[in-house]
Structures are given as C-alpha cells and as structure tokens.
Amino acid sequence: MRQLHRRCFAAFQKDCRIRYEDVNRAVQLICQAHRVAVYGFGNSATVCHDIETRFLRFGIPVQAYSDSHQQITSAALLTEYDVVIAVSHTGTTAELLQCVDVAKTSGARIIGITSYVHSALAKRADITLHGMGREIRYQSESVASRLIHMAIVDLLYMGVAMANPAVYRENIRKMRKVIAEKRI
C-alpha cells in the first residue's frame, strides 16, 4: 500500500506498536482472499461484526462468527485461498485458539488482532496487529482495547479501499443507490 502514509500511523503506533508493514501485508491478504472468516467472542464479537459489515462493501465474501460451533465448522471448510481475522483482547481464549488451529490446518492464513503481542493468538497468527490502550490498568480495559481494535479495523478497511479505489467507489455507489430506494 504505497498510498498509505507512515505519518498516519505516528500517533496510533505510540500505544499500539502496530507495524506499517504488518498492516500492508494484512491488506494484501484480504485483497487476495476468496473469503474472509472473522472470529471473536464477547466484546471482540462487536469488532468482528463491524469487520463483516464494512468489508461486505468490497464484494469479498465475509462472515463473522461469535458461536464456537459455527467458528470451528467454518474453520474446517476454509482453504489456502481464505483468510481468518481472529480478534481477542487477551489472545488466550481456548475456543478461539482451537478454531485458529483448525483454520491453519485447512490452509487459511490468519490475521490476529489482539492487545497482547506475546499471546497464544499472536504466536499462531501469520500477521499480528497489536494494540492496547493506556488505561489497561483500570476497569475500562475492555473499552480501550475494543476502541483500538476498531481503529485497527479502520486501517485495514481504508487500506483495502485504497488498494482498489475504482471497485470501492463503484460498490459504494451501488450500495447507496439500493439503500436510497428503501427510503420513503
């Protein structure tokens, strides 16, 4: 993503320690994917739902799963042409890790979004996008991590949009047209 400017990451990197190269690699994987499966539980599931809603606009088959049985079924049916985005604050949820392992066995590439760079999820992921809020020592840690994880999703979303600007603009045009028809 040559168009993405490093300066956009400066303030974000301070807390997140996210690497420009990792974002670019993740964007490339998403752009090349035949389908994207998104896994997460609890507060992470809200991030997953946002990924599903936003990435649908690119015309890439994308589905978010917050049920462990659906996740494991999805993981077993993936191929080497598919990508999993696994979201977990701690990166240690056993059911999520099991699904990631099955997806890897199926040949899928794994993008992990987590707050802990040395977590089990980070170790299993092909690409780890790590972000943690400063107020992690307080009770609001799940709020801070969710917001930072949503910001990471925004980086991925804009990266994919910038990689395919004509497709993105046309899809947005189509989407707005059909949604406008739903209004009275």
| Structural classification | alpha/beta
Fraction in beta strands: 5-15%
Rg on CA atoms, Å: 16 Å
Largest sheet: 5 strands, parallel
Unreliable residue runs:
1-5, 7-15
* Mean pLDDT level: 88
The secondary-structure element order is HHEHEHEHEHEHH
Tally of separate helices: 8
Spatial arrangement of strands, main beta sheet: 2-1-3-4-5
Terminus-to-terminus distance = 40 Å
Number of E strands: 5
Overall morphology: globular
Helix content: 40-55%
Set out the fold topology.
Layout: H1 10-16, H2 20-32, E1 35-39, H3 43-55, E2 62-65, H4 68-77, E3 82-88, H5 94-105, E4 109-114, H6 120-124, E5 127-130, H7 141-163, H8 165-180
Parallel strand pairs: 1-2, 1-3, 3-4, 4-5
Helix pairs in contact: 2-7, 3-7, 4-5, 7-8
Description:
There is one protein chain. This protein has helices at residues 10-16, 20-32, 43-55, 68-77, 94-105, 120-124, 141-163, 165-180; strands spanning 35-39, 62-65, 82-88, 109-114, 127-130. With 184 residues, the chain is an alpha/beta fold. A five-stranded parallel beta sheet has the order 2-1-3-4-5, sandwiched between helices. Strand 3 (82-88), helix 5 (94-105) and strand 4 (109-114) form a beta-alpha-beta unit. Helix 4 (68-77) packs parallel to helix 5 and helix 7 crosses helix 8. The radius of gyration is 16 Å and the shape is globular. The N and C termini lie far apart (40 Å). Mean pLDDT is 88; it is low at 1-5 and 7-15.
